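Q: Give me the 3D complex with 2-acetamido-2-deoxy-beta-D-glucopyranose.
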Amino acid sequence: GHCSHLLKILVIGDQNVGKTTFVHRYVSGQFNRDYRSTVGVDFSMKALQWSDTETVRLHLWDIAGQERFISMARIYYKGASGCVVMFDVTNSSSFLSCRHWKQDLDSKATLPSGGAIPCILLANKCDLADRSVSAESISRFCKANGFVTWMETSVKDNKNITEAMRFVNNPGPPSVV
Ligand SMILES: *[C@@H]1O[C@H](CO)[C@@H](O)[C@H](O)[C@H]1NC(C)=O
Ligand SMILES: *[C@@H]1O[C@H](CO)[C@@H](O)[C@H](O)[C@H]1NC(C)=O
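A: Here is the predicted complex, encoded as structure tokens.
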């Protein structure tokens, strides 16, 4: 028969780095506004055909509106299988915050195996000329803080969006539920 797997993916980072537009770009408009009033986050879904008989449903959790705290309730992180930590490459303060976001996540949630939830670091707005964070420092930071990898993205120019999400939702074949 056909089976369907559910993966919860978090999208975190400071305000105005492009998280919400990133999610909209990726899911092309599927959006559930109702969830926001319940948990205080935006919640979107995208279904992917994994193989002939398997579908993966991605639930993307965007913390829109909660970014001032750099500390989320455990329930928000619970059960996540992957995470996007995003900053604005023209804003070094949003880059420095990524360490706190990663630490907040790691201190509150793990995979069922006990391992850290795999995180990708995204340097967004790479279409802009006035960068204030160098590729070299991002690389170093990425290693030092346990990110799986990092990529430059431009939500505006639709660059590396699908590629980045492929990293996050492809940690291995999903386990059969
Ligand atoms: C840079 O990001 C911080 C949050 O990390 C924000 O408070 C600040 O307004 C941003 N600066 C600019 C110029 O966008
Ligand atoms: C995607 O990200 C990689 C790693 O940062 C970068 O080398 C590449 O240029 C990016 N691709 C685009 C189209 O921006």
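A quick observation: Residues 3-169 form a domain with the Rossmann fold fold (CATH 3.40.50.300).
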